[in-house]
Design goal:
Number of domains: 1
Number of helices: 11
CATH topology: Rossmann fold
CATH class: Alpha Beta
CATH superfamily: P-loop containing nucleotide triphosphate hydrolases
Largest sheet: 5 strands, parallel
Order of helices and strands: EEHEHEEHEHHHHHEHHH
Number of strands: 7
Oligomer: single chain
């Protein structure tokens, strides 16, 4: 076994199915898993150095085998694209985009389960702007700065996919991205997984089963919350559609993969 460079990174989105997709991918006989799914090197542990990072990937000494990781905060962290570009300019980047309405609600209840969020749903969404004021600027100005609020309280901000993808596209061409719809993945995981294998240059592989990972249950939000979120994200979603030249079928289920 030798330490090697990653061939792919799943960069997000959080609560979009990244854990399931990663666990399906590493079942392919030509993919070797990293030391853990979320290494968080390019956001939280960059000071440890690239040698430490590459030591997380123990691969067989053959070009037939691929390896990679999945850290869903990468898509949102403002410094990550440039850092990855510096070290791996040709890496393949996988993105799962979930209906931002469902994603925001799922994210909120995740923080509640973690005993981090104490505000009610409506108050938490209303408090986001105040909680985030100046945080992105601090991260950019001080690479060693860790923002708890930026990681934890970004229910709405993380659903503005157009801004995040535009930041990534400053550093990588569209050909290096595979952008997937989470809802299609949940509905037909086999098709999405083999689409991903093809993107990575690997042959078709049939898994024995497609178990869901990190599934949780959360209460159904009221209609006013759904309407508020739908209205909030609509202009960003329209911009995303125009930017990518594709439409996402984001009809909220009000109770979906958490």
């Amino acid at each position: 076994m030798i330490f090697t460079q990653p061939n792919f990174i799943i960069i997000g989105t959080q609560k979009g199915g990244t854990t399931s997709l990663y666990n399906y991918l590493i079942q392919h006989p030509q993919i070797v898993p990293s030391s853990q799914k979320e290494i968080h090197f390019f956001d939280f542990q960059y000071q440890k150095g690239i040698d430490w990072y590459e030591a997380q990937f123990a691969s067989k000494n053959s070009t037939e085998f691929l390896t990679g990781e999945a850290s869903p905060y990468y898509i949102f962290h403002p410094l990550v694209p440039e850092r990855i570009k510096q070290h791996y300019p040709h890496i393949k980047i996988i993105v799962l985009l979930r209906n931002p309405v469902d994603r925001a609600i799922s994210h909120y209840y995740h923080e509640v389960r973690c005993k981090i969020e104490t505000l009610c749903l409506k108050e938490a969404f209303a408090a986001e702007l105040t909680r985030l004021t100046g945080e992105t600027e601090k991260i950019i100005s001080n690479p060693d700065y860790y923002s708890f609020n930026h990681q934890r309280y970004t229910y709405l901000s993380r659903g503005i996919y157009i801004e995040q993808l535009q930041n990534w596209r400053k550093y990588f061409p569209i050909e290096q991205f595979l952008i997937l719809e989470s809802e299609s993945f949940y509905k037909n995981p086999e098709s999405t997984v083999n689409q991903t294998f093809a993107f990575l240059g690997l042959p078709y592989y049939q898994l024995s089963q497609y178990c869901k990972y990190n599934v949780g249950n959360y209460p159904v939000a009221n209609e006013h919350i759904y309407q508020y979120l739908t209205n909030y994200f609509e202009p960003y979603n329209q911009h995303l559609t125009a930017y990518l030249g594709r439409e996402f079928i984001w009809t909220s289920t009000k109770k979906s993969f958490c």
